[in-house]
UniProtKB/TrEMBL annotation:
Biological role stated in the UniProt entry: Methylates the class 1 translation termination release factors RF1/PrfA and RF2/PrfB on the glutamine residue of the universally conserved GGQ motif.
Residues in Release factor glutamine methyltransferase N-terminal domain copies: 9-84
InterPro entries from the UniProt entry: DNA_methylase_N6_adenine_CS, HemK-like, N5-glutamine_MTase, PrmC_N, RF_methyltr_PrmC, SAM-dependent_MTases_sf, Small_mtfrase_dom
Name listed for the protein in its UniProt record: Release factor glutamine methyltransferase
Organism: Paracoccus onubensis
Record-linked NCBIfam families: hemK_fam, RF_mod_PrmC
Length: 281
């Protein structure tokens, strides 16, 4: 049998992806090749077998599956949407076009939350459920509620909770609109990109991720005003709020929370950029 090997296909895909403006084309090409192979075989490929498969001649069926994935990536669809999953904190999460792709910088919020004393948590705008599920999985015996304005996103969060083995209440809500009760901790990664910044986003974000999860259509601070204004109604005594922010929004978001009587602190991500505001009322 003659034809291209896996390595041949990956190098050809690399050239195509880099021509489409993707910086590390070979990384994405090889990740997608292994994903296509896993789909065709119906099982995960062990790391020490990768060289073997890359050196082998590829079947026409596998090549067709792989080329469809490269077509999608060349159109700047994120790898996580093509493969349907993204690693975050200690788990793999299902990702679709209905949800934001969980990002490494959001792990800063999870890390800071796990340093706090809490037994109940509310996640506003839960999306994939990555923050909520990571917190509940790391703290057995805790309880949590996740809300989102998107029923489609909540369906993804339910699937993730089931796969990871976490029980959480998930409900449609426009921020606090259907929330009852009080929580020790409120967390959120809200839409914080200002409308005038949207045009500058990478295509993987601006073209493929849900717009209303990215921007409030205004100055990027609308969600913080709502959360700060109503958080005290839904916190237990000595409760905390943790929100992710854009790296230039630290002082603006802290000022919003302080205007409602909160004490605030800002935490940086691993790149040293402002990333999370802690508020205590």
């Amino acid at each position: 049998m003659s034809g291209p090997t896996g390595k041949d296909l990956c190098h050809a895909a690399q050239r195509r992806l880099e021509a489409a403006g993707i910086a590390d084309g070979y990384r994405d090409a090889s990740l997608l090749f292994m994903h296509a192979l896993r789909q065709m075989r119906g099982e995960a490929i062990k790391d020490h077998h990768r060289a073997q498969y890359l050196a082998a001649v590829v079947s026409p069926e596998l090549e067709a599956v792989y080329q469809r994935m490269i077509d999608a990536r060349a159109a700047r669809q994120p790898v996580s949407q093509i493969t349907g999953s993204r690693a975050f904190w200690e788990h793999e999460f299902i990702v679709t076009r209905d949800t934001l792709d969980p990002r490494p910088e959001t792990e800063t919020l999870v890390e800071e939350a796990l340093k706090l004393p809490w037994g109940s948590v509310l996640d506003l705008g839960t999306g994939t459920g990555a923050i909520l599920i990571s917190l509940l999985a790391a703290r057995p015996g805790s309880v949590g509620t996740g809300t989102d304005i998107s029923e489609a996103a909540l369906d993804v969060a339910r699937r993730n909770a089931h796969l990871i083995g976490v029980t959480a209440r998930l409900a449609v809500s426009d921020w606090f609109s259907t929330v009852n009760g009080r929580f020790d901790l409120i967390v959120s990664n809200p839409p914080y990109i200002a409308l005038d910044e949207m045009a500058g986003l990478a295509p993987e974000v601006g073209k493929w991720e849900p717009r209303r999860a990215l921007t409030d259509g205004a100055d990027g601070l609308s969600a913080y005003r709502v959360i700060a204004g109503r958080a005290a109604e839904h916190l237990t005594p000595h409760g905390h709020v943790l929100v992710e922010i854009g790296h230039k929004q630290g002082e603006a978001v802290a000022t919003i929370f302080r205007s409602h009587g909160a004490e605030t602190r800002c935490f940086a991500d691993l790149d040293g950029r402002d990333r999370v505001i802690l508020a205590r009322f």
